[in-house]
Amino acid sequence: MIATFNRGDRIVPTIRSVLRQTWRDFEILVVGDGCTDNTGDVLATNFGDSVTWINLDRNYGSQSSPNNEGVRRARGSHIAYLGHDDIWSPDHLAAMARLIQATEPDFAVSGAILYPQRGIPEYGLTGLFDDPEAARQEFFPPSSWAHRRDVLEQIGPWGDPNELDRPIDLELQQRAVRAGLAFASTGIITVHKFAAISRYMSYRFQGRAHLDADLRRLRQRNQRN
Description:
This protein has 225 residues and is an alpha/beta fold.
């Protein structure tokens, strides 16, 4: 499930990282938040029937409405999210599937590298934990989540950002914690998280060189291994 807004061909490396997964039993839903650019044409040209493209009737201003529509349209038992700026390692879905098959958590979480934001020199790391209470203390970005499709039937859909006093992804995680849902970690790093704020003017000036470079490095690493 990839929510997007006016990324054009900058979304291509993100989707390529999904298509290069070693675990193959998935569908890709890309849901536009009322996109007005050429994202749909880019997806059709590069990926054809490998991607289902859905564009909402207007811009709702966050990933909340696209995510809810994607969950509604999804056919699988679990939903795995991927930010339109982010990249999965080739073993991401395989690691998630192993964890789900072994322990059946409500939320499977994989380790994520958080690349530096402007003015913050350090890399971040999240999603590696043994304590089942870790979700009460630590935030996990949605690109590292997979949850059962029926989880949102239990706790409610992604919230309206205009009605919340915190980020919608944090609010959903906290709501799941309060409901007593179980979180478990794959124990390995498979997610590369790039916050848009870390790339100055990234939404105004198009470019995807940084993501293409990261995909090349991942392929080289896997070939060596």
